[in-house]
Predict the structure of Sulfate exporter family transporter.
Amino acid sequence: MTRPALRLAPVPLLACARAVQVIFRLLPGMGLCAVLAALAYGLQAVEIRLYGRAWLEALNIALLLGVGVRACIGPRAGLAAGIKCCARTLLNVGIMCMGATFSVGAVLRAGPGLLGGVACIVVFSLAFTCCVGRVAGLSPARTLLVACGNSICGNSAIMAAAPVIHAREADVGATIAFTAAGGLVVVLGLPLLALPGLDNAGHGVLAGLTVYAVPQVMAAASPFGAGAVQAGTLVKLMRVLMLGPVCLVLSVLYARAAGHAGGRCGSVLRLVPWYIIGFGAMMGLRAAGVVPPCAVTGLNGLATGLTVLAMAALGLGVELRAVLCAGRPLVVTVVVSLLGLVGASVLLVQLAGGR
């Protein structure tokens, strides 16, 4: 008696069934993040209508909303997969898209002197913050996150560097909360810092060297005119341009410290996160003229939207008690790091303006 042949479902059908299962598993958490992101954009629009500018951007609003919802409902197993996808995968896609928003030509036209000055400020701020964090007794992971956030571009740099150094979500959330507060103080106080002998463009450069996000740079530089806004935006883009090299160096250093580094180029490439490689590739494609201007606008909006979504997800993964218990070392590191960044930037701008 022969056994009946087993009928197996076609491979495409099985793949579709598994994809549907994954989607249904991700939908609850991703849906909650999307709702919080939309609410953050709405509250930012209310700010702009009432005050003429967004004192607290959608990025930070989404983080605060996520932390608040997490404090109210606690961790939910059914939401974890979608929240994790937004906080990691979608964020990495957003960082990659961000590369298309930078004009290498504009940076090169500004001259090597300005680019070199920006690079020196970033390197100084990184080294200075690491020293401050070590003296203050802050953990190495949080120290590096503060250093990247203050030196480069705030939330985006922190979230880009976190996977590279294997930082915990509690570290990321606490760091972003305190650096965002410090950055807001810089935005509000910088227009009041009228330096003698410094023209409007110089004040714009100072804003670009010290303020986190491009909209915040525009807000801090706007009292000094359109020229200051243009100069500040260009310098800010140069700072963000350092994100890729810094993450690359951190990847190699962290791997060597863990004993996984290799001497070949292929080994180094495997240490670099894929989204950093994608960031550089998108930047190169725009420089080559492959990415049209209309697509740049769309990619910029996509990168911003995915980052806001990720901020909501990060907030949902943060335990408020852990943030409140961050303690004096984190506060001291953030404050002294910002003071060092502002002081070094003022010195550089005055020296350059005096030539």
Summary: The chain has one domain: 29-353. Residues 45 and 54 are 8 Å apart (CA to CA).
